[in-house]
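Something for you to look into today, if you have time. Could you write out one complete protein record for me, on any chain you like? Leave the record below and I will have a look.
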Amino acid sequence: MTDRRRGTRAVHEALPAPMREAVDDFADHLARVRNRSAHTVRAYVTDLVSLLDHAVRMGCTDLSELDLTVLRSWLAKQRTVGAARTSLARRAAAARTFSAWAHRAGLLAGDVAAPLASPRAHRELPTVLRADQAAALMDAPDRSRTPAPTDAGRPRDGDDTRPGKGDATPTRDRGDAPPGSEPDPVLLRDRLLLELLYGTGVRISEACGLDVTDVDQGRRVVRVLGKGGRERAVPYGVPAQRALDAWLTQGRPALAAPRSDRALLLGARGGRLNPTTARRIVAGYAEAAGLPRVTPHGLRHSAATHLLEGGADLRAVQELLGHSSLASTQIYTHVSVERLRAAYRQAHPRA
């Protein structure tokens, strides 16, 4: 458990009993009724515990005393200690979500956070690779023979990093494999991971959550369970199919263990590949290929940008990415100006 989570638990235990019960009931509501991810539940609970601790320090002895003044004071304090605009926006959203739920549950006389304004988050756009850079990254596992460890520490649950073996950064040129030699299963896994992230634009959590049964090889689509429990079918291309075939026939059987269950992507110890490990894998290959720093979300961003630049419909990209709002997809149009200019010059009579 991280220091931050220990601190949150300690503050939670110090709250008055009715407030502790409200926090627990709210967390259960988010997980069971709203079907929010474990990450979202943790973030909202952390924000709520911080808010209620601030309310107690302001003299509130009961949840019913929570009001807009307390909420604004809490956000103002967060700002003074240097919280980013994105963090403030999320905390305001957590407060509004809790307030609406508490009102419906009869814990608050009104939805006190409904008028609460939040700063517009400044969205930092991740690095967009050029098409040739993306191709170089996809080929990076083929140029590597032996991965080097990136984390010799103790693995987290589901994180199968092993000192000296697997889940790591490529370091040596591979060259031609000796005749009859078996390919490294970890490199086959890495190739599939990169192809899936760029070829489908799925989130890293979605990729690591895939089961073997989620892949329809006949139609070349994967069934993805996204945010809010929304399911979607995402197509993938021929390079990803080749990587998948190699992984399923030569890679996965070599790493599979009783704990593997139906997981598609496995760590070096046979468990489901952990997103944290997957992020290190992507960053390691990008560094080895001499590319700018790349994250899995950067690959998702690159995939969406390249689709739009290639003429894909914005609604289609929205469906592929699993965005509930078209506004989320529109951030990917920022680098498509040249395509729009070309279309304008070609079509407009006054161009």
Observations:
- DSSP finds 14 helices and five strands in the chain.
- The longest strand covers residues 221-225.
